[in-house]
Design brief:
Number of domains: 1
Oligomer: single chain
Number of helices: 10
Order of helices and strands: HHHHEHHEEHHHH
Distance between the termini: 72 Å
Strand order of the largest sheet: 1-3-2
Number of strands: 3
Strand content: 5-15%
Helix content: 55-70%
């Protein structure tokens, strides 16, 4: 009953949106409620894909992943996150995903992509200037990971020499 009501709210009460959301994607693919779907900014999908920072609801809608999977990605990958306090009194920060870093990180990955991600990655590959920018970001991400790797405390050679 509640699922049907949410679906009706998402599909019928979008008269005030310039770019209405796809009700099938928000309800069945992303598994969002009407309040979560209401947090998605009123932009076209192509404009949302070009944004620097997106909320978890927008990330789920853009990539075609479930909302829960988007939150799990945020929990696992701290390098993709930016935290921002809405007010000085806020106890918890709002978390946003660096979408362009995400596109750069998965541009060469083919295993765990959704069909919507495949479409946008193909668009990036066809646009040469955007592809070069993404590869530069990808290299920066990889260099940052290599620098942040910790050196081992003891090497095997120093122990055998002592």
């Amino acid at each position: 009953m509640a699922k049907q009501r949410d679906f009706e709210q998402i599909t019928t009460h979008q008269h005030c949106r310039l770019y209405p959301l796809d009700g099938y994607i928000t309800m069945n693919v992303c598994k969002m409620s009407s309040t979560q779907a209401g947090r998605i900014r009123d932009m076209s999908l192509s404009d949302l894909q070009q944004q620097e920072f997106v909320s978890p609801e927008e990330f789920a809608y853009i990539t075609g992943r479930t909302y829960k999977a988007a939150k799990n990605i945020m929990d696992r990958n701290e390098s993709l996150l930016i935290k921002e306090y809405a007010t000085p009194d806020a106890t918890r920060p709002k978390r946003f995903i660096r979408l362009q870093h995400y596109w750069a990180a998965i541009i060469n990955n083919k295993a765990s992509l959704t069909p919507r991600e495949h479409l946008f990655i193909n668009e990036i590959r066809n646009n040469k200037t955007l592809y070069r920018e993404m590869m530069k970001i990808n290299l920066k991400i990889r260099e940052g990971r290599e620098v942040s790797k910790k050196k081992p405390r003891y090497s095997h050679q120093s122990q055998s020499a002592a």
